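Hi support team,

I'm opening this ticket because the web form for multi-chain structure prediction keeps timing out on my end. I have pasted the exact lines I submitted so you can reproduce it. The total is 543 residues across two entries, so I didn't expect it to be a heavy job. Is there a limit I'm missing, or should I split the entries? Thanks in advance, R.K.
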Amino acid sequence: MAYSKELIDHYENPRNVGSMDEKDGDTGTGLVGAPACGDVMKLQIKVSADGIIEDAKFKTFGCGSAIASSSLVTEWVKGKTLDEATDIKNTDIAEELALPPVKIHCSILAEDAIKAAVEDYKEKTSVKDDAAE
Amino acid sequence: MTATHWTQNNPLYLDYQATTPTDKRVVEAMAPYWTEKFGNPHSRNHHFGWEAEDAVEIAREHVSQLIGASPKEVIFTSGATEANNLALKGVAKFYGDKKNHIITCVTEHKCVLETCRALQQDGFDVTYLHVKENGLIDLDDLKAAITDKTLIVSIMAVNNEIGVIQPLKEIGQICRDNKVFFHTDAAQAVGKITLDVEDMNIDLMSISGHKMYGPMGIGALFVRRRPRVRLVPLIHGGGQERGMRSGTLPTPLVVGFGKACEIALKEMGAEAARLRGFQERLFEGLKERIPEIYLNGDLESRIPGNLNISFSYVEGEGLMMGIKDLGVSSGSACTSASLEPSYVLRALGVEEELAHTSLRLGLGRFTTEDDIDYAIERISKEVNRLRELSPLWDMAQAGVDIKSIKWAEH
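Hello R.K., no limit was hit. The queue was backed up. Here is the completed structure from your submission:
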């Protein structure tokens, strides 16, 4: 099975590897997948006051396609609004990395990770807003 | 060849349980039988046939010597898969109206397990023995499973994924005491460890050519003559191989297989000692550079050419992508098209998450000490890099129990 140049580049030189403090109010964390299935992605976003994702970090346990998919989405979500970020489709990821059919689930997981991170951020901020009222 | 030569397109081969390169001496021995000595070994009335037949019988002699059998007890087949099918289906069909119970083990190769499944469809009862954490069967389980309906016990000599050696002599004794046939799939064992069908009371033994530096497409089934084991053939035809396996023998392959056995008999002892040193060097080297790695299967009762290691927190396929200059296998190559973790590792009780992190490292005749050192460097560098990317490694370092998290299984 030959992997694309893009995929190999993201695997060998992953972008935005790292962690943010989950407790910070302006971050959102998505942790998806399961160790028993061989894939776990942690995607974190940092959101500015005007609702723009200004930074993203990831850590992934999984195959090369899973690592590359999560690295790619950290690049893609930066500079986007929350709604724009959740509009990213797994098919876009699969296409960009030319994922083979057996690896499509990696792109689905990456899409889920974005949604989970945004969801977590929204939950945190709504709780904060409620408390302020 | 020095270590620096290894690249993605010219990788270092460390997958000797998948197959072995054909030894050049084997290829040389085979060469004339493709061209000038091309006769059909079953042609009984001219020089071409006799010449081929002589070569086949010499090869049969070499195969039999390696396992302590008589040449008359060696039936050539296309490989170990066919030999396993012939042993189990052949015996089952011949004796099935008297005894209908088969005992095997959950970590057998698929060709034994699937053959047993097929026999279950035909009405046979099959007991699948579990294995202990070290990959070996419990002899008390075996004794307890035998009934007066038990026809045959089929337990592999050496496991293809974890390299563990089953207690063949003890199993053979139990089978003999209970008047049950003992078949062993010895594809990974012949030429690696000393085997003696008399001493071990083995009634049927499957052998593969390409796992022992011989050619692909040839193997053999040892079928005991005293006391006699009878088989119904799978392939009918001209009655070659004592009627148990019809079809023209492929003389060049048979000759190559025989040569591989001849070499193994002479060199096995020294080779095993050398590989034992490499196995230890590799395992110790990796342990020294990478914390929290786990060996799957027993270390002592194991062929020297195998290590199967879980590199916790790093997924095996992801790891393999980073070490494309090494030809290794994650789980079994036969099942790596599926995304399921290895059924063999699961049978040992290895957790699914650890099973996903395993690599099989296979060493053999052409492995050098430089190769071992190169593999240690490359694997440890890549595991440590990928752990930096692993959220599970982070959690473990922070003291979070991964099992305490509610994962969404997908």
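A quick check on our side: Chain B is about 40% helix and 15% strand. Let us know if the file doesn't open in your viewer.
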